[in-house]
Design goal:
By secondary structure, this protein is an alpha+beta fold. It is built from 9 helices and 19 strands. The chain has 3 domains: 70 residues, RNA-binding S4 domain (Structural Genomics Hypothetical 15.5 Kd Protein In mrcA-pckA Intergenic Region, Chain A, Roll), CATH 3.10.290.10; 71 residues, Alpha-Beta Plaits, CATH 3.30.70; 77 residues, Alpha-Beta Plaits (2-Layer Sandwich), CATH 3.30.70. The strands form 5 sheets. Strands 7, 10, 11, 12, 15, 16, 17, 18 and 19 form a 9-stranded mixed β-sheet that branches.
């Protein structure tokens, strides 16, 4: 055997070691086809087959994360945005089984919810909108009224750029009243400060058409009866270094009409009312017509009043 033949033999396929027996013939039958599953073809789902989640226990099905939608957010963020607690605390509530989505308990971290889902947190239904708290130093010729009138404009125009949330003012102010006005979408807080027995104090500077007599000041300090109801005044004083037409008044009602009614009951005409403090908030460093967001500490203070 020459070298060329040896190299060709090594390069070719190795011949079978078995030799056909004498007289045998090669079979003409084709080899059987490989099963489809072995060829990598996926098995088609039949009509009788149920989806995988249908075979799982219901509790497990409920904790399978939903596909991400453009308007879906993590459950802990949804809870945090609702203002009930931080994300970290929300995780604890979720793990403890105190959160339901559309009526089913969810315990999975990272579970995503859509804005239209109903989230129940520790027995209460939440809204996904983040709670916003804004204070405005209201100027004249703006009112909290929703009535259409060419003589005045709504205060919401002044805070329109602050947020997209559906905020409302706490309490009412007419077009001639100026000063601190708080806005929020926290309906619980709005309801709280609207109650007649709420405890927060408000301070007003009132401008009268004439000097307030000292005897009248004393009478007002002892309380005033309006429409058969006794109204107690926390404090009333003359404003320092101002004419005696300028009066400082501290009381608990958020109804500015009551302030006007107090002095009118003593035959004084009220020229101007300016709210200088509201439940511990002041308008320091807040020019007329400007607004700002409340700090975290201010929000806590309002909730604890």
């Amino acid at each position: 055997m020459n070298k060329k033949e040896g190299s060709n033999k090594g390069a070719g396929s190795r011949p079978s070691s078995k030799k056909p027996s004498r007289g045998s013939t090669t079979s003409s039958k084709p080899k059987p086809a490989m099963p489809k599953r072995a060829q990598g073809v996926k098995k088609e789902k039949t009509k009788t087959e149920a989806p995988l989640t249908k075979k799982m226990p219901k509790a497990i099905q409920n904790n399978i994360a939903k596909p991400l939608k453009s308007d879906s957010i993590r459950l802990n963020k949804y809870i945090s945005n609702s203002g009930v607690c931080s994300r970290r605390d929300a995780d604890i509530y979720i793990q403890s089984g105190n959160v339901k989505v559309n009526g089913e308990v969810i315990t999975e971290m990272g579970y995503k919810v859509a804005l239209e889902d109903v989230v129940n947190f520790d027995g209460s239904v939440l809204t996904p909108e983040r709670k916003e708290y804004i204070v405005l130093n209201k100027p004249k010729n703006f009112t909290t009224s929703n009535e259409d009138n060419d003589d005045y404009r709504n205060v919401l125009e002044l805070v329109r750029t602050a947020t997209n949330a559906k905020i409302q003012p706490i309490g009412r102010m007419d077009k001639n009243t100026t000063g601190l006005l708080v806005f929020t979408n926290d309906t619980d807080m709005i309801r709280k400060f609207s109650l007649p027995n709420q405890k927060s104090t408000k301070i007003y500077q009132v401008s009268l058409d004439k000097n307030l007599k000292y005897d009248d000041l004393e009478k007002i300090s002892n309380g005033v009866t309006l429409d058969g109801h006794k109204l107690y005044v926390d404090e009333i004083t003359y404003v320092d270094n101002e004419p005696k037409t300028e009066i400082g008044l501290k009381l608990r009602t958020s109804n500015v009409k009551v302030v006007r009614a107090i002095f009118e009951s003593f035959n004084y005409n009220v020229i101007k009312i300016d709210r200088v403090a509201f439940a511990g908030l002041t308008k320091k460093n807040l020019p007329r017509g400007n607004w700002r967001f409340l700090t975290e500490q201010e929000i806590i203070n309002l909730k604890n009043v």
